[in-house]
Amino acid sequence: MPESLARVATGAAPRYAKQFASHFGRKIPVEETPDGGHRLTSDKTDVVLHPADDHLLVEVTAPTRRRSPPSRTWWAAISNASAVATS
Question: pLDDT digit string (tens) for 56-83?
Answer without folding.
Answer: 999 999 887 666 655 555 555 555 544 4
